[in-house]
Amino acid sequence: MPKELILITVKTYPTLSATYGELVCTAGLREDGSWIRIYPVPFRSMEDYKKFEKYRIIEAHVSPSPKDNRPESHKVDIDTLTLTETKLSTADHWRERRNWVLARGKVYDDLTELIAAANKRNELSLATFKPAEILDFKAESQSPDWDQEKIAKLQNDSQQGSLFAELQPRAVTSYVKKLPWKFSYKLRDSKGRISTMMIEDWEIGALYWGCLQDGATPEEAVQKVRKKFLDHFRQQDLYLFLGTTREWHGRGSNPFVVIGVFYPPIQNQRELF
């Protein structure tokens, strides 16, 4: 089986899996512009030389997931994962990234069409979406602690030697902190449909914790996150990377959440040529 070349465009904030421990939902685009989800990726417990950042091109053996019916979901062989030397830059108005993400792949602007493709036809579970307008950015407080029963199970499995038995990464001695906020976008699509979608991008969690480390209060940190994800991104040529949740794929009124943001600068017509 040949290795797949994948441009990593999505890394979500880590969650806890009762089976694999701390995991990051990871997705990207093949050379032909088609989406692929690779799972499971125990990112923080991987060897350093295997860790990748967004817009890095990686190579790995992948195979369709036997446990996830979402069409793009593939199981990755972590042992075969290698990082290429290629990371797409932001030079020249993000030209390299635009060519791979926008020119090769399909861009949706109609949520009703997109949801039908996921729910009625099971054609996709990942997509690039262009909102007509971002109406608002919301932050709702939530419990800052992971489910203690899940933590206890993971600790027990680790002691028994069964945790990550299949993947055999380095042990993670402490789990990533849970975000004490649920962040979401309220947006309008090209047909006027208004929706609110959770934002699960790694960047939003990293920005929040970074603000706290710089001395901000939790409320000040939320305002700084809002300033970037609402005020700043409104001034960019904003696209959203959407993914369905496994729980609601095929049946939810809107099974999508925001798993990444793509925000090159706005170009005028002269700059496009």
Q: Characteristics of this structure?
A:
2 domains; OB fold (Dihydrolipoamide Acetyltransferase, E2P); single chain; 4-stranded mixed β-sheet; alpha+beta; 16 strands; 7-stranded mixed β-sheet; 5 helices; globular; 273 residues
* CATH class category name of the largest domain: Mainly Beta
Per DSSP, the total helix count is: 5
Overall mean confidence score, pLDDT? 89
Distance between the termini: 40 Å
Query: What's the CATH superfamily of the largest domain, by name?
Result: Nucleic acid-binding proteins
CATH topology of the largest domain: OB fold (Dihydrolipoamide Acetyltransferase, E2P)
Radius of gyration: 19 Å
**Which CATH architecture of the largest domain would you pick?**
Beta Barrel
Tell me about the largest β-sheet: 7 strands, mixed
Total of domains: 2
**Neighbour order of strands in the largest sheet:** 7-8-5-4-1-6-9
Helix-strand makeup class: alpha+beta
Helix content: 10-25%
Instruction: Give the percentage of residues in beta strands.
Output: 25-35%
Q: What shape does the CA trace take?
A: globular
